[in-house]
Amino acid sequence: MARSASDERPREGRDRNKPLYMISVAAELTGMHPQTLRVYEQKGLVTPGRSRGNTRLYSQSDIERLNLISKLTDEGINLAGVVRILDMRERMLEREDELEDLRRRVRELEDEVHEFRMQEKITALARYDAAASPEQVMRRLLLGGAPEPGEKNED
User: Fold this and answer.
1) pLDDT tens profile 129-152
2) 65 contacts 32 by C-beta, under 8 angstroms
């Protein structure tokens, strides 16, 4: 099925889905007859935008989709097959987006786990001393446990 502007993939710029080209320009860019573009719209292969005067306006994304349809039909695939291929392609692209989101989330969680482990290590290394300020505790950690000058060593 054809993509609408609201189905835009995040990694694609909004400009790719901006309706720009009238049917005559789209026909020229794709090497198709305007009537062929109308048939493809009727069959749901492409959904051009519309101007206020109801003129069909094709986006760069629509042009790319039409070029893919042309390539598939040139290879002998009928329109029913093209519809199936485009549907599978859309689902594949959606899965790729979901996979990228999951990878991003895994990276975030790995960072959080790393930070949590570092906090645990610091907490385990730092003896609790109610009288010591956090800065004093950090200095002790950084100096390898040696007391600061003027600080008493309880060991």
Assistant:
1) 666 777 777 777 777 655 555 555
2) no
Residue 15 pLDDT > 60, yes or no?
yes
* Fold of the domain spanning 5-76: Multidrug-efflux Transporter Regulator; Chain: A; Domain 2 (1.10.1660)
Residue 141 DSSP SS3: helix
Other CB atoms within a 10 A radius of the CB of residue 76 amount to 7
- Dihedral, CA atoms, 136, 142, 148, 152, nearest 10 degrees? 80
Pair of tokens at residue 95: 């899965």
Q: Where are the domains of the chain?
A: 5-76, 109-142
Nearest CA to 37 among 6, 1, 65, 72?
Answer: 65
Cα 35 to chain center, whole Å?
Answer: 35
pTM for this model (two decimals): 0.60
